[in-house]
Amino acid sequence: MVAMKDLVAFCKRKGFIFPSSDIYGGLNGFFDYGPLGTELKRNVKNLWWKNMVQDREDIVGLDSAVILHPNVWRASGHVDGFSDPMVDCKVTKARYRADQVFYAPISVSGKLLGYICVTDGEERDADIAKKTKALLKARNCSQEKPDEIHLKPLTEAKPEEFALIPSPATDKPGDLTPPREFNLMFQTQVGAVASEAGIAYLRPETAQGIFINFKNVVDSTRVKLPFGIAQIGKAFRNEITPRNFTFRSREFEQMEIEYFLPADETLWPNLHQKWIEERYQWHLSIGLRKEWLSFDVHEKKDLAHYAKACTDIMFRYPFGVQELEGIAVRGNFDLTQHQSCSGKPLEYFDETLKTKYLPYVIEPSVGVDRTVLALLVSAYDEDEVNGEKRVVLRLKPKLAPIKAAVFPLVKNKPELVEKARGLFSRLQKRWYTAYDETGAVGRRYRRMDEIGTPWCVTVDFDSLDNDTYTLRDRDTMQQTRLSEAELTAFFEKQLQ
Ligand code: ATP
User: pTM for the full model?
Assistant: First the structure.
Protein backbone atom coordinates (compact mmCIF):
# COMPACT_ATOMS: atom_id res chain seq x y z
CA MET A 1 0.00 0.00 0.00
CA VAL A 2 1.25 3.47 -0.86
CA ALA A 3 2.60 5.52 2.08
CA MET A 4 0.62 8.69 2.80
CA LYS A 5 3.62 10.98 2.30
CA ASP A 6 4.16 9.52 -1.19
CA LEU A 7 0.49 9.83 -2.05
CA VAL A 8 0.30 13.43 -0.83
CA ALA A 9 3.38 14.34 -2.87
CA PHE A 10 1.97 12.52 -5.90
CA CYS A 11 -1.36 14.36 -5.61
CA LYS A 12 0.38 17.71 -5.59
CA ARG A 13 2.88 16.86 -8.33
CA LYS A 14 0.23 15.61 -10.71
CA GLY A 15 -2.46 18.17 -9.93
CA PHE A 16 -4.96 16.01 -8.05
CA ILE A 17 -5.04 17.76 -4.68
CA PHE A 18 -3.22 20.84 -3.36
CA PRO A 19 -3.13 22.25 0.17
CA SER A 20 -5.60 25.12 0.12
CA SER A 21 -4.15 28.65 0.05
CA ASP A 22 -0.82 27.05 -0.74
CA ILE A 23 1.03 30.29 -1.56
CA TYR A 24 0.07 31.63 1.89
CA GLY A 25 1.41 28.57 3.64
CA GLY A 26 -1.83 26.55 3.50
CA LEU A 27 -4.79 26.50 5.87
CA ASN A 28 -5.04 23.45 8.09
CA GLY A 29 -7.97 21.23 7.18
CA PHE A 30 -8.71 22.76 3.78
CA PHE A 31 -7.79 21.46 0.35
CA ASP A 32 -8.09 22.50 -3.27
CA TYR A 33 -8.64 19.91 -5.97
CA GLY A 34 -6.43 20.44 -9.01
CA PRO A 35 -7.36 19.80 -12.64
CA LEU A 36 -7.20 16.00 -12.40
CA GLY A 37 -8.62 15.77 -8.87
CA THR A 38 -11.58 17.88 -9.95
CA GLU A 39 -12.35 15.45 -12.76
CA LEU A 40 -11.97 12.43 -10.49
CA LYS A 41 -14.18 13.94 -7.81
CA ARG A 42 -16.78 14.97 -10.37
CA ASN A 43 -16.81 11.44 -11.81
CA VAL A 44 -17.37 9.99 -8.32
CA LYS A 45 -20.28 12.34 -7.66
CA ASN A 46 -21.82 11.85 -11.11
CA LEU A 47 -21.66 8.09 -10.78
CA TRP A 48 -23.16 8.13 -7.30
CA TRP A 49 -25.94 10.42 -8.53
CA LYS A 50 -26.60 8.23 -11.55
CA ASN A 51 -26.62 5.00 -9.55
CA MET A 52 -28.45 6.28 -6.47
CA VAL A 53 -30.93 8.68 -8.09
CA GLN A 54 -31.29 8.42 -11.85
CA ASP A 55 -31.07 4.64 -12.21
CA ARG A 56 -33.77 4.15 -9.55
CA GLU A 57 -37.43 4.95 -9.31
CA ASP A 58 -37.60 5.43 -5.58
CA ILE A 59 -35.07 8.23 -4.96
CA VAL A 60 -35.28 11.91 -5.89
CA GLY A 61 -32.67 14.63 -5.61
CA LEU A 62 -32.35 17.84 -3.62
CA ASP A 63 -29.91 20.74 -3.43
CA SER A 64 -30.55 22.70 -0.25
CA ALA A 65 -28.80 25.81 1.03
CA VAL A 66 -25.56 25.59 2.99
CA ILE A 67 -26.83 28.11 5.54
CA LEU A 68 -30.19 27.14 7.01
CA HIS A 69 -32.37 28.77 9.63
CA PRO A 70 -30.43 28.51 12.93
CA ASN A 71 -33.41 26.77 14.51
CA VAL A 72 -32.75 23.81 12.21
CA TRP A 73 -29.57 23.14 14.18
CA ARG A 74 -31.30 23.70 17.52
CA ALA A 75 -33.99 21.18 16.59
CA SER A 76 -31.49 18.63 15.27
CA GLY A 77 -29.45 18.81 18.47
CA HIS A 78 -26.33 20.17 16.78
CA VAL A 79 -26.23 23.46 18.72
CA ASP A 80 -26.20 21.63 22.04
CA GLY A 81 -24.55 18.38 21.17
CA PHE A 82 -22.42 18.42 18.02
CA SER A 83 -19.13 18.50 19.83
CA ASP A 84 -15.99 16.51 20.37
CA PRO A 85 -13.98 16.28 23.59
CA MET A 86 -10.84 18.37 23.31
CA VAL A 87 -7.61 18.49 25.34
CA ASP A 88 -4.72 20.93 25.07
CA CYS A 89 -1.07 20.55 25.87
CA LYS A 90 -0.42 23.48 28.20
CA VAL A 91 3.24 23.66 27.17
CA THR A 92 3.22 23.26 23.37
CA LYS A 93 -0.36 24.54 22.90
CA ALA A 94 -1.02 21.51 20.69
CA ARG A 95 -4.70 20.65 20.60
CA TYR A 96 -6.07 17.10 20.40
CA ARG A 97 -9.37 15.30 20.12
CA ALA A 98 -9.45 13.32 23.36
CA ASP A 99 -10.87 10.22 21.67
CA GLN A 100 -7.93 10.23 19.26
CA VAL A 101 -5.28 10.31 21.97
CA PHE A 102 -4.42 6.96 23.56
CA TYR A 103 -2.77 6.17 26.84
CA ALA A 104 -1.55 3.03 28.57
CA PRO A 105 -0.06 2.18 31.94
CA ILE A 106 3.37 0.59 31.58
CA SER A 107 4.30 -1.97 34.17
CA VAL A 108 6.93 -4.62 34.71
CA SER A 109 5.84 -7.81 36.53
CA GLY A 110 2.72 -6.02 37.72
CA LYS A 111 4.58 -2.97 39.08
CA LEU A 112 3.39 0.31 37.55
CA LEU A 113 6.24 2.42 36.14
CA GLY A 114 4.16 5.22 34.66
CA TYR A 115 2.04 6.04 31.63
CA ILE A 116 2.67 6.58 27.95
CA CYS A 117 0.46 8.68 25.70
CA VAL A 118 0.37 8.68 21.88
CA THR A 119 -1.78 10.15 19.13
CA ASP A 120 -3.62 8.09 16.56
CA GLY A 121 -2.11 7.70 13.10
CA GLU A 122 0.46 5.96 10.95
CA GLU A 123 3.23 6.43 13.53
CA ARG A 124 1.23 5.15 16.50
CA ASP A 125 2.86 1.74 16.89
CA ALA A 126 6.35 3.14 16.43
CA ASP A 127 5.55 5.84 19.02
CA ILE A 128 4.33 3.29 21.56
CA ALA A 129 7.56 1.32 21.21
CA LYS A 130 9.72 4.47 21.46
CA LYS A 131 7.91 5.91 24.47
CA THR A 132 7.82 2.58 26.31
CA LYS A 133 11.55 2.19 25.79
CA ALA A 134 12.19 5.71 27.10
CA LEU A 135 10.04 5.11 30.19
CA LEU A 136 11.80 1.82 30.98
CA LYS A 137 15.13 3.60 30.63
CA ALA A 138 14.05 6.46 32.90
CA ARG A 139 13.02 3.94 35.56
CA ASN A 140 16.27 1.98 35.20
CA CYS A 141 14.41 -1.00 33.79
CA SER A 142 15.90 -1.10 30.30
CA GLN A 143 16.70 -4.78 30.60
CA GLU A 144 13.16 -5.73 31.68
CA LYS A 145 10.28 -6.79 29.47
CA PRO A 146 7.17 -4.68 30.03
CA ASP A 147 3.81 -6.37 30.71
CA GLU A 148 1.28 -6.44 27.90
CA ILE A 149 0.26 -2.90 26.88
CA HIS A 150 -3.46 -2.03 26.83
CA LEU A 151 -4.17 1.24 25.07
CA LYS A 152 -7.32 3.21 25.87
CA PRO A 153 -8.63 6.49 24.48
CA LEU A 154 -8.09 9.47 26.78
CA THR A 155 -11.86 9.83 27.12
CA GLU A 156 -11.84 6.68 29.24
CA ALA A 157 -9.20 7.92 31.71
CA LYS A 158 -10.40 8.19 35.31
CA PRO A 159 -9.77 11.58 37.00
CA GLU A 160 -7.12 10.11 39.31
CA GLU A 161 -5.34 8.59 36.30
CA PHE A 162 -5.50 11.81 34.34
CA ALA A 163 -2.87 13.58 36.43
CA LEU A 164 -0.41 10.77 35.75
CA ILE A 165 -0.88 10.67 31.98
CA PRO A 166 1.76 12.62 30.07
CA SER A 167 1.07 14.95 27.16
CA PRO A 168 1.84 13.20 23.87
CA ALA A 169 3.87 16.30 22.91
CA THR A 170 6.09 16.68 26.00
CA ASP A 171 5.85 13.22 27.59
CA LYS A 172 5.43 14.99 30.97
CA PRO A 173 2.48 14.12 33.25
CA GLY A 174 0.23 17.04 34.12
CA ASP A 175 0.80 18.96 30.89
CA LEU A 176 -2.65 18.13 29.46
CA THR A 177 -5.80 20.08 30.28
CA PRO A 178 -8.84 17.99 31.26
CA PRO A 179 -11.13 17.17 28.29
CA ARG A 180 -13.83 19.72 27.50
CA GLU A 181 -16.52 19.76 24.83
CA PHE A 182 -15.91 21.80 21.68
CA ASN A 183 -18.77 22.49 19.24
CA LEU A 184 -17.71 21.69 15.69
CA MET A 185 -20.08 24.01 13.86
CA PHE A 186 -18.67 27.07 12.10
CA GLN A 187 -20.58 30.19 13.00
CA THR A 188 -21.28 33.03 10.65
CA GLN A 189 -23.36 36.15 10.66
CA VAL A 190 -26.36 36.73 8.41
CA GLY A 191 -27.30 40.32 7.63
CA ALA A 192 -25.44 43.61 7.82
CA VAL A 193 -25.74 44.20 11.57
CA ALA A 194 -23.80 41.86 13.79
CA SER A 195 -26.11 40.59 16.52
CA GLU A 196 -27.05 37.46 18.44
CA ALA A 197 -30.12 37.11 16.26
CA GLY A 198 -28.00 37.05 13.10
CA ILE A 199 -25.87 34.09 14.16
CA ALA A 200 -26.10 31.24 11.67
CA TYR A 201 -24.07 28.11 10.97
CA LEU A 202 -22.41 26.55 7.98
CA ARG A 203 -24.10 23.16 7.74
CA PRO A 204 -22.08 20.37 9.36
CA GLU A 205 -24.00 17.77 7.31
CA THR A 206 -26.30 17.86 4.30
CA ALA A 207 -28.91 15.62 5.96
CA GLN A 208 -30.87 18.31 7.81
CA GLY A 209 -31.55 20.12 4.53
CA ILE A 210 -33.34 16.95 3.47
CA PHE A 211 -35.44 16.57 6.63
CA ILE A 212 -36.69 20.15 6.55
CA ASN A 213 -37.76 19.67 2.91
CA PHE A 214 -39.48 16.34 3.51
CA LYS A 215 -42.97 17.83 3.28
CA ASN A 216 -42.06 19.98 0.26
CA VAL A 217 -40.86 16.91 -1.61
CA VAL A 218 -43.88 14.80 -0.65
CA ASP A 219 -46.24 17.59 -1.71
CA SER A 220 -44.50 18.43 -4.97
CA THR A 221 -43.73 14.96 -6.33
CA ARG A 222 -45.52 11.62 -6.47
CA VAL A 223 -43.20 9.76 -4.10
CA LYS A 224 -44.70 6.98 -1.98
CA LEU A 225 -43.05 5.24 0.93
CA PRO A 226 -40.52 3.75 0.90
CA PHE A 227 -38.64 6.46 -0.97
CA GLY A 228 -35.43 8.41 -0.61
CA ILE A 229 -34.16 11.96 -1.01
CA ALA A 230 -30.53 12.31 -2.05
CA GLN A 231 -28.21 15.25 -1.80
CA ILE A 232 -24.58 15.97 -2.63
CA GLY A 233 -22.99 19.03 -1.13
CA LYS A 234 -20.43 20.72 1.00
CA ALA A 235 -20.37 20.29 4.77
CA PHE A 236 -18.21 22.15 7.27
CA ARG A 237 -16.88 21.01 10.61
CA ASN A 238 -14.36 22.87 12.69
CA GLU A 239 -12.50 19.63 13.41
CA ILE A 240 -10.17 19.90 16.41
CA THR A 241 -7.41 18.00 14.69
CA PRO A 242 -7.87 17.85 10.94
CA ARG A 243 -5.42 15.28 9.63
CA ASN A 244 -4.65 12.37 7.42
CA PHE A 245 -4.80 14.57 4.34
CA THR A 246 -8.38 14.98 3.07
CA PHE A 247 -9.71 12.22 5.32
CA ARG A 248 -10.57 14.59 8.13
CA SER A 249 -10.92 18.08 6.78
CA ARG A 250 -12.85 21.13 7.86
CA GLU A 251 -14.60 21.61 4.54
CA PHE A 252 -15.65 18.48 2.70
CA GLU A 253 -18.43 17.05 0.58
CA GLN A 254 -21.03 14.49 1.49
CA MET A 255 -23.30 12.29 -0.60
CA GLU A 256 -26.28 11.51 1.58
CA ILE A 257 -29.56 9.68 1.19
CA GLU A 258 -32.43 9.81 3.63
CA TYR A 259 -34.47 6.74 2.78
CA PHE A 260 -37.91 7.04 4.38
CA LEU A 261 -40.00 4.00 5.22
CA PRO A 262 -43.14 3.23 7.21
CA ALA A 263 -42.69 3.57 10.96
CA ASP A 264 -42.91 -0.16 11.46
CA GLU A 265 -40.45 -2.09 13.61
CA THR A 266 -40.59 -5.13 11.34
CA LEU A 267 -39.54 -3.30 8.17
CA TRP A 268 -36.29 -1.52 8.88
CA PRO A 269 -33.97 -4.44 9.72
CA ASN A 270 -34.33 -5.94 6.24
CA LEU A 271 -34.09 -2.64 4.43
CA HIS A 272 -31.06 -1.66 6.49
CA GLN A 273 -29.28 -4.87 5.46
CA LYS A 274 -30.21 -4.21 1.84
CA TRP A 275 -28.71 -0.73 2.00
CA ILE A 276 -25.52 -2.00 3.60
CA GLU A 277 -25.14 -4.57 0.83
CA GLU A 278 -26.06 -2.10 -1.90
CA ARG A 279 -23.54 0.48 -0.73
CA TYR A 280 -20.81 -2.12 -0.24
CA GLN A 281 -21.35 -3.35 -3.80
CA TRP A 282 -21.18 0.24 -5.03
CA HIS A 283 -17.81 0.74 -3.41
CA LEU A 284 -16.58 -2.46 -5.07
CA SER A 285 -18.02 -1.34 -8.41
CA ILE A 286 -16.00 1.88 -8.40
CA GLY A 287 -12.81 -0.06 -7.78
CA LEU A 288 -12.12 0.04 -4.05
CA ARG A 289 -10.09 -3.02 -3.13
CA LYS A 290 -12.24 -5.73 -1.61
CA GLU A 291 -9.53 -6.78 0.85
CA TRP A 292 -9.44 -3.24 2.26
CA LEU A 293 -13.18 -2.89 2.82
CA SER A 294 -14.86 -4.08 5.99
CA PHE A 295 -17.85 -3.38 8.23
CA ASP A 296 -18.16 -1.96 11.70
CA VAL A 297 -21.48 -2.89 13.25
CA HIS A 298 -22.11 -0.49 16.13
CA GLU A 299 -23.08 -2.04 19.40
CA LYS A 300 -26.40 -0.96 20.90
CA LYS A 301 -24.63 0.80 23.78
CA ASP A 302 -22.64 3.00 21.35
CA LEU A 303 -25.66 4.20 19.38
CA ALA A 304 -27.12 7.70 19.66
CA HIS A 305 -30.24 7.60 21.84
CA TYR A 306 -32.58 7.89 18.83
CA ALA A 307 -30.75 5.44 16.56
CA LYS A 308 -31.94 1.89 16.08
CA ALA A 309 -28.83 0.53 14.35
CA CYS A 310 -25.72 1.68 12.54
CA THR A 311 -23.15 -0.06 10.39
CA ASP A 312 -20.13 1.72 8.99
CA ILE A 313 -18.36 0.66 5.84
CA MET A 314 -14.70 0.87 6.71
CA PHE A 315 -11.68 1.26 4.46
CA ARG A 316 -8.10 0.37 5.21
CA TYR A 317 -6.31 3.67 4.57
CA PRO A 318 -2.51 3.86 4.98
CA PHE A 319 -3.12 5.41 8.44
CA GLY A 320 -5.45 2.62 9.56
CA VAL A 321 -8.95 1.20 9.14
CA GLN A 322 -11.37 4.14 9.22
CA GLU A 323 -14.98 5.02 8.45
CA LEU A 324 -15.76 5.63 4.80
CA GLU A 325 -19.55 5.55 5.00
CA GLY A 326 -22.09 5.34 7.79
CA ILE A 327 -25.44 3.61 7.29
CA ALA A 328 -27.66 4.47 10.24
CA VAL A 329 -31.28 3.77 11.08
CA ARG A 330 -32.44 7.00 12.71
CA GLY A 331 -36.06 6.16 13.53
CA ASN A 332 -38.14 9.32 13.11
CA PHE A 333 -36.11 11.46 15.49
CA ASP A 334 -35.29 14.23 13.00
CA LEU A 335 -38.80 14.64 11.60
CA THR A 336 -40.24 14.56 15.12
CA GLN A 337 -37.84 17.30 16.23
CA HIS A 338 -38.51 19.50 13.21
CA GLN A 339 -42.26 19.04 13.52
CA SER A 340 -42.22 20.01 17.16
CA CYS A 341 -39.77 22.93 16.85
CA SER A 342 -41.27 24.43 13.69
CA GLY A 343 -44.87 23.78 14.71
CA LYS A 344 -45.56 22.60 11.14
CA PRO A 345 -47.10 19.17 10.59
CA LEU A 346 -44.67 16.95 8.71
CA GLU A 347 -46.64 13.71 8.81
CA TYR A 348 -47.01 11.49 5.81
CA PHE A 349 -50.45 10.25 4.88
CA ASP A 350 -50.31 6.53 4.18
CA GLU A 351 -53.06 5.81 1.67
CA THR A 352 -52.97 2.08 2.21
CA LEU A 353 -53.25 2.31 5.98
CA LYS A 354 -55.40 5.47 5.84
CA THR A 355 -53.38 6.99 8.60
CA LYS A 356 -50.83 9.74 9.20
CA TYR A 357 -47.39 9.21 10.75
CA LEU A 358 -43.78 10.36 10.75
CA PRO A 359 -41.80 7.78 8.78
CA TYR A 360 -38.57 6.12 9.89
CA VAL A 361 -35.41 6.78 7.96
CA ILE A 362 -32.28 4.92 6.91
CA GLU A 363 -29.32 7.19 6.20
CA PRO A 364 -26.46 6.03 3.95
CA SER A 365 -23.96 8.89 4.25
CA VAL A 366 -20.60 8.89 2.53
CA GLY A 367 -17.86 11.50 2.15
CA VAL A 368 -16.82 12.39 -1.39
CA ASP A 369 -13.29 13.22 -0.25
CA ARG A 370 -12.91 9.99 1.70
CA THR A 371 -14.11 8.08 -1.38
CA VAL A 372 -11.63 9.87 -3.63
CA LEU A 373 -8.84 9.17 -1.15
CA ALA A 374 -9.81 5.49 -0.92
CA LEU A 375 -9.86 5.33 -4.73
CA LEU A 376 -6.39 6.84 -5.00
CA VAL A 377 -5.06 4.43 -2.36
CA SER A 378 -6.70 1.48 -4.15
CA ALA A 379 -5.52 2.53 -7.60
CA TYR A 380 -1.96 3.66 -6.89
CA ASP A 381 0.54 1.08 -8.02
CA GLU A 382 4.18 0.88 -8.97
CA ASP A 383 5.63 -1.72 -11.29
CA GLU A 384 8.61 -2.13 -13.54
CA VAL A 385 8.63 -1.92 -17.31
CA ASN A 386 11.88 -2.78 -19.10
CA GLY A 387 13.85 -2.20 -15.91
CA GLU A 388 12.27 1.22 -15.35
CA LYS A 389 9.98 2.02 -12.43
CA ARG A 390 6.46 2.92 -13.53
CA VAL A 391 3.78 4.61 -11.42
CA VAL A 392 0.38 3.55 -12.62
CA LEU A 393 -2.98 4.64 -11.33
CA ARG A 394 -5.28 1.71 -11.98
CA LEU A 395 -8.54 3.63 -11.83
CA LYS A 396 -11.65 2.13 -13.40
CA PRO A 397 -12.03 3.77 -16.84
CA LYS A 398 -15.37 5.35 -15.91
CA LEU A 399 -13.69 7.19 -13.02
CA ALA A 400 -10.39 8.06 -14.70
CA PRO A 401 -10.03 11.84 -15.12
CA ILE A 402 -8.91 11.47 -18.74
CA LYS A 403 -10.34 8.59 -20.72
CA ALA A 404 -7.94 8.53 -23.66
CA ALA A 405 -4.87 10.28 -25.01
CA VAL A 406 -4.07 10.73 -28.67
CA PHE A 407 -0.43 10.90 -29.81
CA PRO A 408 1.05 11.52 -33.23
CA LEU A 409 4.07 9.19 -33.43
CA VAL A 410 6.33 12.22 -34.00
CA LYS A 411 5.54 15.89 -33.91
CA ASN A 412 7.58 17.03 -36.88
CA LYS A 413 5.49 15.30 -39.54
CA PRO A 414 2.56 17.62 -40.33
CA GLU A 415 0.45 14.86 -41.88
CA LEU A 416 0.68 12.78 -38.69
CA VAL A 417 -0.09 15.79 -36.49
CA GLU A 418 -3.05 16.75 -38.64
CA LYS A 419 -4.51 13.25 -38.54
CA ALA A 420 -3.94 12.98 -34.78
CA ARG A 421 -5.53 16.39 -34.14
CA GLY A 422 -8.55 15.36 -36.21
CA LEU A 423 -9.00 12.11 -34.27
CA PHE A 424 -8.46 13.96 -30.98
CA SER A 425 -11.11 16.57 -31.66
CA ARG A 426 -13.67 13.93 -32.67
CA LEU A 427 -13.00 11.82 -29.57
CA GLN A 428 -12.95 14.90 -27.34
CA LYS A 429 -16.56 15.66 -28.25
CA ARG A 430 -17.58 12.46 -26.50
CA TRP A 431 -15.00 11.78 -23.81
CA TYR A 432 -12.48 13.85 -21.92
CA THR A 433 -9.42 13.25 -24.11
CA ALA A 434 -5.83 14.49 -24.00
CA TYR A 435 -3.48 15.29 -26.84
CA ASP A 436 0.26 14.92 -26.34
CA GLU A 437 3.04 15.20 -28.89
CA THR A 438 6.08 15.91 -26.73
CA GLY A 439 8.81 13.36 -26.05
CA ALA A 440 9.19 9.73 -27.00
CA VAL A 441 5.98 7.71 -27.18
CA GLY A 442 7.20 5.56 -24.25
CA ARG A 443 7.46 8.67 -22.06
CA ARG A 444 4.03 9.82 -23.12
CA TYR A 445 2.62 6.40 -22.15
CA ARG A 446 4.22 6.74 -18.71
CA ARG A 447 2.76 10.19 -18.19
CA MET A 448 -0.71 8.87 -18.95
CA ASP A 449 -0.25 5.72 -16.82
CA GLU A 450 0.64 7.90 -13.87
CA ILE A 451 -2.60 9.84 -14.00
CA GLY A 452 -4.75 6.81 -14.69
CA THR A 453 -5.62 7.33 -18.37
CA PRO A 454 -6.78 3.87 -19.43
CA TRP A 455 -6.02 4.11 -23.15
CA CYS A 456 -3.52 5.79 -25.46
CA VAL A 457 -4.06 5.97 -29.20
CA THR A 458 -1.04 6.48 -31.42
CA VAL A 459 -1.28 7.79 -34.96
CA ASP A 460 1.61 6.45 -37.07
CA PHE A 461 2.54 6.16 -40.71
CA ASP A 462 0.31 3.13 -41.26
CA SER A 463 -2.59 5.25 -40.01
CA LEU A 464 -2.07 7.52 -43.02
CA ASP A 465 -2.42 4.55 -45.38
CA ASN A 466 -5.16 2.46 -43.80
CA ASP A 467 -6.93 4.62 -41.21
CA THR A 468 -6.11 2.35 -38.29
CA TYR A 469 -4.54 3.34 -34.99
CA THR A 470 -2.61 1.66 -32.20
CA LEU A 471 -4.64 1.36 -29.02
CA ARG A 472 -2.46 0.75 -25.98
CA ASP A 473 -3.96 -0.47 -22.72
CA ARG A 474 -2.70 1.06 -19.44
CA ASP A 475 -2.89 -2.14 -17.38
CA THR A 476 -1.88 -4.87 -19.81
CA MET A 477 0.29 -2.53 -21.95
CA GLN A 478 -0.94 -4.56 -24.92
CA GLN A 479 -1.34 -2.86 -28.24
CA THR A 480 -4.07 -3.51 -30.79
CA ARG A 481 -4.69 -2.04 -34.19
CA LEU A 482 -8.20 -0.61 -34.63
CA SER A 483 -10.15 1.57 -37.03
CA GLU A 484 -11.79 4.71 -35.67
CA ALA A 485 -15.21 3.04 -35.68
CA GLU A 486 -13.80 0.10 -33.72
CA LEU A 487 -12.08 2.47 -31.31
CA THR A 488 -15.20 4.41 -30.49
CA ALA A 489 -17.27 1.21 -30.19
CA PHE A 490 -14.65 -0.10 -27.77
CA PHE A 491 -14.67 3.07 -25.62
CA GLU A 492 -18.46 3.14 -25.63
CA LYS A 493 -18.63 -0.44 -24.38
CA GLN A 494 -15.95 0.04 -21.73
CA LEU A 495 -17.38 3.30 -20.42
CA GLN A 496 -21.05 2.46 -20.28
P1 ATP B 1 -15.86 10.44 12.07
O2 ATP B 1 -16.29 9.52 13.17
O3 ATP B 1 -14.76 9.88 11.20
O4 ATP B 1 -15.62 11.85 12.52
P5 ATP B 1 -18.60 10.81 11.59
O6 ATP B 1 -19.17 9.54 12.11
O7 ATP B 1 -18.65 12.04 12.41
O8 ATP B 1 -17.09 10.56 11.08
P9 ATP B 1 -20.77 11.32 9.88
O10 ATP B 1 -21.28 12.44 10.69
O11 ATP B 1 -21.47 10.01 9.94
O12 ATP B 1 -19.21 11.11 10.18
O13 ATP B 1 -20.63 11.82 8.38
C14 ATP B 1 -20.91 10.99 7.28
C15 ATP B 1 -19.71 10.87 6.37
O16 ATP B 1 -19.16 12.15 6.07
C17 ATP B 1 -18.56 10.09 6.98
O18 ATP B 1 -18.73 8.70 6.81
C19 ATP B 1 -17.39 10.60 6.18
O20 ATP B 1 -17.26 9.90 4.94
C21 ATP B 1 -17.74 12.03 5.90
N22 ATP B 1 -17.05 12.92 6.83
C23 ATP B 1 -17.42 13.23 8.10
N24 ATP B 1 -16.55 14.09 8.66
C25 ATP B 1 -15.61 14.34 7.72
C26 ATP B 1 -14.44 15.17 7.69
N27 ATP B 1 -14.08 15.92 8.72
N28 ATP B 1 -13.69 15.19 6.56
C29 ATP B 1 -14.03 14.44 5.49
N30 ATP B 1 -15.13 13.65 5.47
C31 ATP B 1 -15.91 13.59 6.55
Answer: 0.91
